[in-house]
Specification:
Blueprint: H1 2-21, E1 31-34, E2 41-46, E3 54-58, E4 63-66, E5 74-75, E6 86-91, E7 99-103, E8 118-121, E9 129-130, E10 138-144, E11 152-158, E12 168-172, E13 180-183, E14 189-197, E15 200-214, E16 217-220, E17 228-232, E18 240-242, E19 254-258, E20 266-270, E21 278-282, E22 290-293, E23 307-311, E24 314-321, E25 325-328, E26 336-338, E27 345-350, E28 358-362, E29 365-369, E30 391-392, E31 399-403, E32 410-414, H2 424-427, E33 430-431, E34 440-443, E35 446-454, E36 457-462, E37 467-470, E38 496-498, E39 506-509, E40 513-516, E41 524-525, E42 543-544, E43 558-563, E44 571-575, E45 580-583, E46 591-592, E47 603-609, E48 617-622, E49 632-636, E50 644-645, E51 659-664, E52 672-676, E53 679-683, E54 691-692, E55 702-708, E56 711-716, E57 721-724, E58 743-744, E59 750-752, E60 771-777, E61 785-790, E62 796-801, H3 804-808, H4 811-816, E63 824-826, E64 835-841, E65 866-874, E66 877-887, H5 889-893, H6 898-929, H7 934-947, H8 959-971, H9 979-1000
Parallel strand pairs: 16-42, 59-66, 62-63
Antiparallel strand pairs: 1-57, 2-3, 3-4, 4-5, 6-7, 7-8, 8-9, 10-11, 11-12, 12-13, 14-15, 15-16, 15-17, 17-18, 19-20, 20-21, 21-22, 23-24, 24-25, 25-26, 27-28, 28-29, 30-31, 31-32, 32-33, 34-35, 35-36, 36-37, 38-39, 39-40, 40-41, 43-44, 44-45, 45-46, 47-48, 48-49, 49-50, 51-52, 52-53, 53-54, ...
Length: 1001
């Protein structure tokens, strides 16, 4: 008993200590950098009462809404949904404010994200409430009773990766407060679709589907008792199976459509063997069926597609979403292909009041048509890209690269605007070789070269020419094979890794590690088979009906390769069937170092050699494809001889957050970052405990992460790339010891990056150049915050205060100091709130004086490169931290030096002082004009006319405007002022002096 009490006490103390050191990191916000391009969308719907309003449900990007016919899309599920995977959306026909969403996409790919039940909105998507069925898994359909929006039906496919008893048809009669399972077959058979009979919602059709995904195969269909169409005529109390005219043997995925204008007509697209698959039609509410078409395109990859919809005004107009999108105008007898912005089609919704107005979705997003599908709205306005990994290059600013699901190439986007451009949201997406799976890995020292992959096909892409050279290991097309017969087995996401010691050494993985030293011209195999290679997993994928072998089903391949940066030739590998291997001699000898207690068969998503100890490494293992959602993170300190599990049930990561990637901070030992199926976590104690590190990041799988130039860079499976700028504060011990005293963290080195001429847009998020200054304020602190920036001579460059009270006490001083170096202003973003805070200083020194207090001394030139000091005062407590501002290497490469910048700033300051003098003279004269009359007033007004422009269109530009014009001319780019600028400055000085004399006379 005493031992038990002690164990509870120890656990309590551990939990208490974790709670005490946990911090609120919301000051550290992620930003999205795109691409501004749609990813896979699996369901769409519209609102007949509001014809411009549509919803889309992405497979990993959540729910989005447009109210302008698809011109703009906005996410409405962030902050409410626990999963980004959407299976079905339905809007109440009698109240467009009522929306129900079933989570869990029905396209059971290997990267499908699990559902978390049903959500409801009563305010058209502004807010959402979870209303149950959390364990149902994937949801194929949601239907609302058109006569009563409190009655809702749900078709639950179930867990994509294992049996579960929550499969079935569900019904609620009170808006989701309670649910009743009204139809259940088995824990292996769920329901892909259901339809309510128009005019009588008590008559219901349901399509049963036996479906399960394994890492090595897809099971779609079963015997006649494990699938088929069911019907109820009494609101789900009783069900009969419809069999007359339908396939008698194996039967797979089924989708249904009932005609709104003739309820006797029921269509079904059915997966079945051979010619039995295709379109079936009933004209007597399911009593009998007739096969109308066996067109193979209707059942192309049925587990992924299979969707039939009808024109709401004509039962002979039928649409089939698969690959391709097909349309029939004769009841399904013949079909014509429709052109859409992207292939791989999933759903379509047609406005019942105007069948020419419709929305359709595919693997490229959602698109709206006003003319029956002749033309479509753009997909470059819905950032839901599914990315498999992230790599970064070494240019300035750096670019991010990844394989993007269903794109013809890997892609690249910049971290900041690299140039002037008219359309920054779409103009900076480049193709970079390979195909959708990636990766795209840049050659260190030459960012124009990208080593790319397409399902095992290695290529070398040259950004300068836009072409790629192909050097496939084995030079054999591996599609469609039984993996046991392949010489080289490659996963769709076959790893590529460039040596950390020699940029000419590139590693590539099948079941072996392959090495090239000449960009793929020659390959050397440097390992034996480093996988488990269990015979029963080496099968032709797709059973029992439809063969499906695209590469993602190849089990027993390498999934991750990493070489230690501390020791050349020390290479770690992880396979997608759970094997960890190591070589310490560049591949001459290998050792299996798989953790002995780790459950077998998981996908080793990442291996991470330590930056500090060659014997140390970390792995992240994903077993959710085997029905096990637990996080599996391991650490070794002895080259894999033994491993420690660092993702226990009690140390911070939820038990159903599958782990996808772990990276160690390259500066602070023991600082770890983990990306999971549903978000980010951080550890400051080498994995002993984990803290949520999600902040403003949407809930979506984190597929990969990199730490680069002090930034945390992420790829996601549904929301594109994200960056957390400047994690330097996390690397400082003070972040774990924040108590009763204010703390100023040491700012990171900042590149003096001049923002190019780019239109301002909300997306992608490209913030302006700034020094990021993090600080901590203890709870209950009062008295305001002041931040002063000093140069290397300890002269004040700028003082920023957090509240107007402090400003009022210094305004007089600023006025009296006239043109001194004192420069103060209020910035509401210099927060006073308790906890961690982040402020962005824009590198600007003092600008010209203005009569408008809010503009006075603002927008001066960017300071020169050099060493500066941040001086923070919080409630009378002052602390200082030095930091560096460095040259933009691109500017330096042009031959422009720090001395040139200082020359430019000196000239700019002279013009700024002149501008301040002129503005002050204007202010003084305007004040005097209010006091005088007669000739003196006329004389003053004559001076004023020469100082400022007249009102109205295109006035003559007078002195103040001319000085501003000169300032703009010499300060808009990094440049030395020209002789014309110097001459013009001298002229303007004379003009101002003359006006000052005239004003005094």
């Amino acid at each position: 008993m005493q031992t038990r009490f002690l164990s509870f006490a120890i656990i309590f103390l551990l939990l208490l200590s974790t709670a005490l050191i946990a911090q609120d990191f919301k000051a550290f916000e992620y930003r999205t950098v795109g691409p501004e391009r749609g990813g896979r969308v699996t369901t769409v719907t519209g609102t007949p009462m509001l014809p411009g309003t549509f919803y889309l449900g992405a497979s990993g990007g959540g729910v989005w809404k447009t109210d302008d016919y698809g011109t703009t899309w906005n996410n409405v599920s962030d902050g409410f949904f626990d999963t980004p995977s959407i299976g079905a959306i339905e809007v109440a026909i009698n109240d467009s404010n009522i929306v129900y969403v079933g989570t869990g996409s029905d396209g059971l790919r290997s990267n499908v994200i699990s559902g978390k039940g049903v959500y409801k909105s009563i305010d058209a998507g502004k807010t959402w409430e979870h209303i149950g069925l959390r364990e149902t898994g994937q949801i194929g359909a949601v239907e609302i009773d058109p006569t009563n929006n409190q009655i809702v039906w749900v078709a639950a496919i179930g867990n994509a990766f294992g049996p579960n008893s929550e499969r079935g048809i569900y019904k609620t009669v009170n808006g989701g407060k309670d649910w009743e399972k009204v139809l259940f077959i088995s824990d292996k058979v769920g329901f892909a679709d259901l339809e309510l009979l128009p005019g009588n919602p008590n008559i219901v059709y349901a399509a049963a589907w036996k479906a399960e995904r394994k890492p090595w195969t897809i099971i779609s269909g079963g015997n006649k008792d494990e699938g088929g169409i069911y019907k109820s005529i009494n609101g789900g109390k009783d069900w009969v199976k419809l069999e007359n005219g339908l396939p008698k043997g194996l039967i797979g995925k089924i989708d249904l459509a009932v005609s709104p204008v003739d309820s006797k007509i029921l269509y079904a697209i059915i997966e079945a063997p051979g010619k039995e698959g295709g379109l079936y039609k009933s004209t007597d509410q399911g009593k009998s069926f007739e096969q109308i078409s066996d067109d193979i395109r209707l059942v192309n990859r049925p587990f992924y597609y299979t969707n039939v919809e009808l024109d709401p005004t004509n039962p002979d107009i039928v649409y089939s979403n698969a690959n391709p999108l097909l349309k029939s105008t004769d009841g399904g007898k013949s079909w014509k292909r429709m052109s859409v912005p992207h292939g791989d089609n999933h759903d379509i919704w047609i406005n019942p009041n105007n069948p020419d107005l419709l929305i359709q979705c595919n693997d490229g997003g959602a698109n709206v048509s006003h003319n029956g599908g002749k033309t479509w709205s753009t997909q470059f306005n819905q950032p839901t890209a599914e990315l498999y990994q992230v790599e970064v290059d070494d240019q300035y600013p750096y670019w991010l690269y990844a394989g993007m699901q269903d794109n013809s190439s890997t892609i690249g986007v910049p971290s900041f605007p690299p140039s002037a451009i008219q359309n920054p949201g779409t103009g900076w997406i480049i193709n970079s070789g390979g195909c959708e799976t990636g990766p795209g890995v840049q050659k260190p020292g030459n960012h124009n070269i990208v080593y790319a992959n397409c399902k095992g096909r290695f290529s070398v892409f040259d950004k300068r020419t836009g072409t790629e050279k192909s050097y496939y290991v084995g030079a054999s097309n591996i599609y469609g094979h039984n993996p046991k017969d392949l010489k080289y087995r490659f996963q769709r996401v076959a790893p590529i890794h460039v040596s950390r010691h020699n940029p000419d050494v590139v590693y590539h993985g099948s079941q072996y590690v392959h090495k090239t030293i000449n960009d793929g011209m020659n390959w050397e195999t440097i390992s034996p088979d480093l996988t488990a290679f269990e015979a029963d997993k080496q099968v032709i994928s797709g059973s029992p009906i439809t063969r499906d072998i695209t590469g993602e089903e190849y089990y027993s391949t390498l999934y991750s390769i990493r070489e230690s940066k501390l020791k050349e030739g020390l290479i770690w590998t992880g396979s997608n069937d759970g094997v960890i291997s190591i070589t310490q001699d560049g591949g001459k000898t290998w050792k299996n170092v798989t953790p002995k207690k780790m459950p077998k068969g998981g996908r080793v998503e990442s291996v991470e050699p330590s930056h500090f100890n060659p014997a140390k490494a970390y792995i992240a293992v994903d077993r959710h494809l085997l029905g096990d959602d637990k996080p599996y993170l391991y650490k070794t300190n002895n080259y894999g001889a033994s491993w420690e599990l660092i993702s226990t049930e009690a140390n911070g990561i939820p038990s159903d957050f599958t782990t996808r990637v772990l990276r160690e901070d390259p500066v602070r030992e023991g600082l770890l970052y983990v990306g999971t199926e549903f978000g980010m976590f951080v550890s400051f104690d080498d994995g002993k405990s984990w803290e949520k590190f999600q902040q403003n990041l949407p809930v979506t799988p984190i597929t990969d992460l990199k730490i680069f130039r002090g930034d945390l860079v992420l790829s996601t499976m549904g929301r594109g790339f994200w960056i957390l700028d400047n994690i330097t504060s996390l690397r400082q011990e003070a972040v774990n010891n924040l108590k009763d005293a204010p703390v100023l963290f040491k700012p990171d080195k900042t590149i003096r990056y001049r923002y190019p001429n780019v239109s301002s847009r909300a997306f992608p998020n490209y913030p302006r150049t700034s020094v990021i200054i993090d600080y901590y304020i203890p709870k209950g602190t009062k008295g305001g915050v002041q931040l002063e920036i000093l140069n290397d001579k300890k002269e004040s460059v700028v003082t920023i205060v957090s509240d107007k009270t402090q400003l009022k006490s210094t305004v007089t001083e600023v006025e009296d100091m006239n043109l001194s170096q004192t420069f103060r202003y209020v910035d509401t973003k210099l927060e006073e709130k308790d906890g961690l805070n982040r402020f962005h200083w824009d590198l600007r020194q003092k600008g010209a004086w203005s009569a408008n207090e809010n503009r006075s001394y603002k927008n001066g030139p960017m300071v020169a490169p050099g060493t500066y000091t941040a001086k923070l005062t919080v409630a009378g407590n002052t602390s200082e931290q030095d930091f560096e501002i460095v040259m933009d290497p691109r500017v330096e490469a042009t031959g422009f030096s720090k001395a040139d910048i200082e020359t430019q700033i000196a000239m700019s300051n002279k013009v700024i002082d002149l501008l301040s003098e002129a503005k002050k003279l204007q202010s003084e004269i305007e004040k005097e004009a209010k006091k005088v009359k007669g000739d003196h007033l006329e004389k003053i007004n004559a001076v004023l006319k020469q100082l400022k422009n007249d009102e109205g269109a295109y006035p003559q530009q007078m002195l103040i405007s001319q000085i501003s014009y000169l300032l703009y001319m010499i300060s808009s780019a990094d440049q030395l002022p020209g002789q014309e600028a110097a001459d013009r400055y001298a002229e303007l000085v004379l003009e101002l002096n003359n006006l000052k004399t005239q004003a005094k006379d």
